[in-house]
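Module 6 notes. Inverse folding takes a fixed backbone as the condition and produces residue identities as the prediction. Think of it as a translation problem where the source language is geometry and the target language is the twenty amino acids. Below is one complete input and output pair. Work through it position by position during the lab.
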C-alpha cells in the first residue's frame, strides 16, 4: 500500500510539473543615467493573456549571467528599444542613426545566443528582430528614409497610438508565421526607422511591407526563433485573439523546448 501511495504521489507530481505554465523571459530596456531597467506592460499582459508567466530580465553584465538566466526560463521575448550599434555589423554610424545602447546590445545578444544554443523558444520584436538579424550575421539599413532604395511607400514610424494598425504586411504562405496567423496579409502597427538589409544566414524572410521592407524573419528549423518588425504586444494586451495567437505560439514552443547543451559556449559580441 505504501509503495502504491508513493507511486500515486510521483504520478501526481509529474502531472503538476507538466501542467506548470512556461516562464517567458522579457528583455528590458536599460537607462545608465537613471540606473533603471524597464519594459512596457504591453509585453507583460501579452504573455499573461497567452497563458505564460512573464519574467523580466534586467541587463546582463556578462555572458555567464545571461546563460544562467536563460537556463531558468522556458522562452524569451527580445523587446523593442534603441537602434542597434552599427559597429556590430561592420558599419560606421550614419548621420540619421538614433540613440544606441551598447551595454544593452551585448546583453540581448548574450541572451539570444544562449537561448539559441539551448533550443529555447524566442520571439523577437522590433529592435529585437533587428538585433536577432545582426547577432546571426546580418546587416541593417541604419535609416529607411535616407538609405532604403526606391523611397518607401508606407509609413514605418507611425504618428499615432500603437493600438492602431498603420499598414499591411504580406506573409509568405507555408512559413511558421503563416501557420500561426493563417492569413497572407496582416494589418500591423509600426515604430521603426531601421530595417533588415542583408538577412542572416539560416534565417528567411517570411513577411514584407508593400515597399519591400522586411517585416518578419524566422530561423526554423535550425533556430527556434521568430522575429517581427511590428509591435503585436499592443494588440495582444487588449486580448485581440488574432494577435494573442502569436504569443500563444511562443508559450507552446516554450513548453516543448528542451535544453540540448548544458553549458553553452557564448561568443563575445565583437565589432566587425
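Target side of the pair, the amino acids:
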Amino acid at each position: 500500500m505504501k509503495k502504491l501511495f508513493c507511486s500515486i504521489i510521483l504520478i501526481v507530481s509529474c502531472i503538476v510539473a507538466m501542467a506548470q505554465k512556461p516562464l517567458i523571459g522579457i528583455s528590458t530596456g536599460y537607462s545608465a543615467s537613471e540606473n533603471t531597467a524597464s519594459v512596457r506592460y504591453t509585453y507583460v499582459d501579452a504573455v499573461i493573456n497567452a497563458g505564460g508567466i512573464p519574467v523580466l530580465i534586467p541587463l546582463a553584465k556578462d555572458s555567464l549571467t545571461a546563460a544562467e538566466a536563460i537556463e531558468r526560463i522556458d522562452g524569451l521575448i527580445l523587446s523593442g528599444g534603441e537602434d542597434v550599434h552599427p559597429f556590430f555589423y561592420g558599419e560606421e554610424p550614419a548621420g540619421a542613426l538614433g540613440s544606441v545602447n551598447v551595454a544593452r546590445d551585448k546583453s540581448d545578444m548574450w541572451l539570444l545566443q544562449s537561448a539559441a544554443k539551448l533550443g529555447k523558444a524566442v520571439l523577437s520584436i522590433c529592435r529585437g528582430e533587428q538585433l536577432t538579424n545582426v547577432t546571426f550575421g546580418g546587416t541593417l539599413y541604419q535609416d529607411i528614409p535616407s538609405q532604403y532604395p526606391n523611397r518607401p511607400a508606407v509609413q514605418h514610424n507611425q504618428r499615432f497610438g500603437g493600438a492602431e494598425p498603420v499598414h499591411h504586411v504580406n506573409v509568405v504562405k507555408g512559413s511558421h508565421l503563416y501557420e500561426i496567423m493563417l492569413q497572407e496579409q496582416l494589418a500591423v502597427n509600426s515604430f521603426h526607422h531601421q530595417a533588415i538589409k542583408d538577412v542572416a544566414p539560416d534565417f528567411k524572410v517570411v513577411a514584407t511591407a508593400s515597399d519591400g521592407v522586411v517585416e518578419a524573419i524566422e530561423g526554423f528549423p535550425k533556430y527556434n526563433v521568430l522575429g517581427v518588425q511590428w509591435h503585436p504586444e499592443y494588440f495582444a494586451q487588449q486580448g485581440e485573439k488574432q494577435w494573442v495567437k502569436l504569443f500563444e505560439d511562443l508559450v507552446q514552443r516554450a513548453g516543448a523546448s528542451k535544453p540540448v547543451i548544458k553549458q553553452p559556449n557564448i561568443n563575445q559580441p565583437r565589432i566587425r
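Reference fact for the lab report: The radius of gyration is 19 Å.
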